Structures are given as structure tokens and as C-alpha cells.
Here is the input.
Amino acid sequence: MDKKNVVLLGGSNSVIVNGLQRGLREGIEQFNQDYSKKLKFHNFALGATTSLQNLYELKRDRNKIILENAKLIISESNINDSFCYDNSKIYKTVELLFNELSQFKTKILILILPFFNLNSKIVNQIHKKLALKFGFNIIDINSYYENFNLSNFSFLREKDGSHQFDFIYKRLGNNIISNIEKLTICNSNNNSKFNLKICQAKEIDETVVYNRSNSIFNEKCIRLFDSNLFKFPSKYEGFELIGCHCWTTEEDSDIQAPLDWLGRRGIQGNISIYNKNNKISFEFCLDNIFIDINSSFYIDKNTFINIRKKALSYCDLIAFLLFSPRKTIDDCDLNFKVLA
Here is the structure.
């Protein structure tokens, strides 16, 4: 069966309506007029997320058939990864993502978008180093900006340089599709498979499951109140908790939430997870978000979840991302000073 799907993974640069995704859509429309094979676009991107969210989307059951029939999978996450300075963690997460991408034996394209802020210099090199290791196609726009002295230009649209003008990424999307047949199929000999699981919210409490949707996203969630205590299913004993997906709204509350994205990020609550061996807590906020859990926490037979009231006294949970076992990488082999 001919593979027909074009899948996009990434953050806000892949969500912005008139940028990269528009270029891909227009390119696909033109491709479908010129060729008998028909391509279909699927966007799994979510703003303000790292490589871990890209990995999460690869493991969701609802995406399985789409990904198995992908002609091209595009991934970008170097900009949001650059907000982290734990280089070892970044390396391990990107390696895990790329390992999963390599399992599809299709065309994989890694975009290294221009960013000259925070930890970008090392992060960009990590993405490039690992993309070469797995034999992926690479478009390194960051190096193009460097070679033509465009780093100052990268800050014109936004003061932190995290987003470029829409027309640039729109043209990029057009050009990717017009050259799709020139991209090579990943033939990595990597056979490493990791045990990644997604614990869906309904496994924790199936009493009331909400369907939450807008013009872009459609998810199922449960509402965790601060007055209740919830328990992880015992089948996940031994798994490490690495990510959390939630979509909390201000409905049914007294909160007067601002309309702007950054203001809504400031409306927060706290999730506490504990067992006899350990305890962690992390913040969540309004809207559809994916949270990287940076603290090492392993689930046992009696691991509990509760909400600690701040501005929000409840959390609308979609899923947790779990991993076992953590692959060991010898950090001595990772000379981040050289990458810088």
C-alpha cells in the first residue's frame, strides 16, 4: 500500500496558521493536482512543547495507523528544547525521540529552525548530531542564518527570536513538498525498542470523561479535584513518570482568566504525586499543555495523585507518559563543550 500521510510534529512554529503548516498544506494541494498519488496532511504539533511531546504523539494509539502510513514525518523542536540547560537530559530525550522515529522506516525530516538565544548553540548541535546518527534528512535553517549573517534578522519579529516571519516558513513548507520525492527513506539499522506507555486519564477515573475540543484539538479528559485522591493503576508499577498532558479550562470556576496566552499561563495549579518512596509536584496551567516531568519518579503499587489548590483547584487531565527502563548513556562520551 502506498504511504500517503505527511505528519508534522513540533511546537508553536508548527501551529501558527499562516506559517509552516500552511506551506505544507498548499504544497500538498499542488502535489495532488500534479500526481496520481494523493497526500494527506496531519498536524500533531502543540505550542510551547519540547521533543518529549513529539515522542508522546508517536506513542498515542489514535495516531498509530496514520504514522504507519506516513510518507514523510517532519519534526521540529530545537527552539523549545533550548529553554532547558540540562544538556544530558536533552540529549537523552532527543535520542529517544529519534529512535522511535527510526522505527517507521519512512522518510524522516528534521528541521533545525533558526534560534540564537538561551541554550540554542548546544541544542542545535545535539539535534544535528543525532539526526546524522539515525540517517535522517536535515534542513538546517539555523546554519543558513549563520552563514549569511542573519542572526540579527531572526529577532525582528519577536524580541526573543523564537518565531520568524510567516512567509519564511510558508515557503519552507512549499519547498519541502515540492521536493518530497528527493528525500531519502530512513534505513537505520537501529533495533533498539523502549518500553513507553501512555496512562490515559480514564484509567485513573472513568466516572466522568469529558470531551474537550476546539478548531484544532480534540481530547478526552477527566477533572481531578483538590478534594479527591486518585491512584495510578498497579499495572504501571516500575515505570518512570516523564510527562503529563492536560487541558484545563476556567469553566465552572470563579476565575476571571485573561485572554492572552501568556496571561493564561500564569493561572496555575499544582499536581502532587507520591508513594512510600518518593514525592514530586509540578505546576500546570490553563489550556492544552504538555509538561515535561524532570524529577525522577517511579510508580509502585500504591502511587497516588492529588491536586494542591493554587489559583486552580482542579486539573483536567488527559494522560501521563511513562517510560521503563531509562536507557543508560555514558555522559563521558558527550562533550557538550565541543558541541558549543
About this structure: DSSP finds twelve helices and 15 strands in the chain. Confidence is low (pLDDT under 50) at residues 328-332.
